[in-house]
Amino acid sequence: MTPPIYLDYNATTPLDPGVREAMRPFLEEVWGNPSSVHQVGRRARALLDDARDRAASLLKCKPSEVIFTSGGTESASLALCGTARLLQSKGRHLVTSAVEHDAVLHTCRYLARKEGFDLTVLPVDASGRVDPATLRQALRPDTILVSIMAANNEIGTLQPVAELGAICREHGVRFHTDAVQWFGKEPVASVHQFNADLVSICAHKFHGPKGAGALFIRSPLLPDPILFGGGQENERRAGTENLAAIAGLVAAMERFVPDPVFSRSQLEPLGNRLKAMAGAMEGVHYVGAGERGLANTVSFVVEGTDSIALLAGLDLEGVCASSGSACSAGSVEPSHVVAALGYPPELANALVRFSLGRETRPEDINHVLEVFPEVVTRARPRPSRRDASD
Ligand SMILES: Cc1ncc(COP(=O)(O)O)c(C=O)c1O
Prior knowledge:
The chain is an alpha/beta fold. It is built from 14 helices and 12 strands.
């Protein structure tokens, strides 16, 4: 059986063999609890400290500013719930954008609905970008926290994060960026490049393990914890540390973040061929920010179809693509990102995303170019006999 062509790297990536090797000692001989005072525990503690030092040296921050988490979702929840609750006596206004991942949007909506915070959701332009002037206008004396993602998972748009962060800093407002799709794809010279107080990172998006992530928290900010128990992670995240996952995250960061593993020079020409295909097909529209987007992400909306039919058709042709964000139940929801760009609901239901990666070859793109027109035709309802004779 020929292996499928995997074009869903924004959902997840395969574990890198070198990263797996870096994790192996923690699945075998180093099994101690870093909080134990005996020598088995102390060895685990020394290796945990070493992992944190290495992550901090890569991010160019203090080790105490790195909190290891279970991934992007937990990092965003800690950043948003923890900071909102910490600062609520100063104000209760939160700001985010209409194109955030649900990890951010749903958390913000939860805080608004259940805890009485006031939420402003900023609009975006036709390419999915937040206008810095719109953010400036939205800030109020009671604004405490803004969360805008660095790179969009569905359509690849890069936000002017450094500029947005600078505006927040100028106004004394805390700024979180969900950089889950940025790390490994766009350069990171220092975590301070985002001008953010909080930065969410997730290992499995750049060939690290699932269930591993980090939150950078710029000192002296100390968000309220969202998990309670022991004093791990600077008292911000209770629970015995998952050392194998942490070792995998740090190994993946060292290997794939400074020189992004998603190489623009490899992926841009491949992505451009897909974009050109859309231009040549009736009713197929590229959505995204062009050169101001991730090189690996090419998304289309397809008139007269829906995502489920398109994805099923591609799957039958051996191509794994996505409709944007993978839903936990495997169901496909209309894309809130496409809706935010101003497309009508039927097109928000007809998104197909190809996200390319390290293993993508020109032959894979040739195959997509060959089968996609037929997949689209099959996904469109056939005219009924009466329609045809009309
Ligand atoms: C932009 C963005 N933020 C957050 C997440 C959540 O990451 P995880 O599900 O690994 O916790 C994802 C994953 O798809 C993402 O793409």
